[in-house]
Amino acid sequence: MTADRNLRVHVTRPIPDQALDYLKGQGLDVTCPADDGPPSREELLSSVEDAEAILSILTEKIDGEVFERARRLKVVSNMAVGYDNIDVPEATRRGVAVCNTPGVLTDTTADFAWALLMAAARRVVECHRFVQDGRWEWWGPKMMMGADVHGKTLGIVGFGKIGQAVARRATGFDMKVLYSGETAPETSKWGEKVSFSDLLQSSDFVSLHVPYRPSTHHLIGREQLHLMKKTGFLINTARGAVVNEEQLVEALESGEIAGAGLDVFEKEPQVHPGLHRLNVVLAPHAASASLATRAKMATMAAENLVAVLRGEEPQAIVNPEVLEQCQSPK
């Protein structure tokens, strides 16, 4: 990667140091804001001018306006498995490679889905606040009763790598696992494939692991929540807009379902105010937030980016048809 000037990479948000050090060690001119908070739209647009590469995170919208400003752009490397924040067809039309980071966060995200499930079922957050606020004055046999997890039925919507990792963990709780999904395998040693409606009606816990696309927008709404058991719990570590938040609040308020554990929301970081009043465990899109996993994600995103700039095949690319157009600069 030699040229009259160092190739410029813009990292849209501070990321783990090892990934930044890797990029700088490749002789790249790396720019990155000092503030952890999201950049304004104009700050993002002005920062990507003259950049050959962008290392983005899922909260930054990379669309035609960005591509128009970044005329030198060869690659957008997303530090996430999902890439619904990127206009992939527009990137492909312009010959810009789009990369993501699948695989490295599978087990960490599955762990967190279970953390939400357990916390919602056993009222862990409510118990914590009860003790922390000094309200625990006596013990009683009806205090903080929750739902059992062992021996119950877990329904997994979307049976890719993360969904299957969640299913594997269910064996330790002697649970029956049902799964559904457009691309789900017909058979699996980790569970039984059923229709979406059968899964909703039969499961004590429904865990969502689908990608966000038009076909999954508001996949869970009033009709689907009505099918669930009144004792059921909904867990979402996929994308916020997979669930109709307004209708979820209605279902929780009316007792259609017992509770929920949510890591993602329709209009992040905004959260529907009704969710604060109900039996819902809320997390700030933290499913992949372990020290090791976030470092792996950032490093993989950086390595993908460098590979494209070198004219090599990256570890993960969303639109491989553009690789021939992304030649290493002379």
Class from secondary-structure proportions: alpha/beta
What is the overall silhouette?
globular
Strand percent estimate:
5-15%
Run of helices and strands: EHEHEHEHEHHEHEEHEHEHEEH
Largest sheet: 7 strands, parallel
Strand order of the largest sheet: 8-7-6-9-10-11-12
Please compute the radius of gyration using only Cα atoms.
22 Å
- What's the tally of helices? 11
Mean pLDDT: 95
Which runs of at least 5 residues are low in confidence (pLDDT < 50)? none
How many β-strand runs? 12
Key features?
330 residues; alpha/beta; 5-stranded parallel sheet; 12 strands; globular
TL;DR of this structure?
This protein is 32% helix and 14% strand. It is an alpha/beta fold. The strands form 2 sheets. Strands 8-7-6-9-10-11-12 form a 7-stranded parallel beta sheet, with helices on both faces. The chain has a 5-stranded parallel beta sheet with strand order 2-1-3-4-5.
